Amino acid sequence: GYKGRSVVAEIVVFDRELDDMVSSGKSRKEMHEYVKKNGFVSMQDDGLDKVARGITDLQELMRVVDLTDRL
């Protein structure tokens, strides 16, 4: 079952600006900066927030999300 489980997720809202960035060949870095500026929360950040709030632990987060660039 799913009782007691928590989701670690990320959602990118594709607005007109981001669509234009993709169409015009902007770099991945530029697009990432844009979505972060507009409220994007990565799986890493969502998971680390859940660790800080005691919803999950670091070992479980590391099992499901790549944190190598954060450690």
Characterization of this structure:
There is one protein chain. This protein is mainly alpha-helical. 49% of the residues lie in helices and 0% in strands. The chain has four helices and no strands. The protein has helices spanning 16-23, 28-37, 43-52, 58-64. The longest helix is centred in the middle third of the chain and has 10 residues, at 28-37. It is elongated. The N and C termini lie far apart (32 Å).
Which properties best describe this structure?
71 residues; mainly alpha; 49% helix; elongated
Q: Which value, in Å, is the CA radius of gyration?
A: 15 Å
pLDDT < 50 runs, ≥5 residues: none
The ordered string of helix (H) and strand (E) elements is HHHH
- Helical fraction equals 40-55%
Q: What structural class do helix, strand and pairing data support?
A: mainly alpha
Assembly classification: single chain
Question: Beta-strand level of the residues, as a percent range?
Answer: under 5%
Largest sheet descriptor: none
In DSSP terms, counting alpha (H) and pi (I) runs of 4 or more, how many helices?
4
Q: What does the average pLDDT come to?
A: 93
User: Per the principal axes of the C-alpha atoms, what is the gross shape?
Assistant: elongated
Rounded to the nearest angstrom, the distance between the terminal CA atoms is 32 Å
- How many E strands? 0
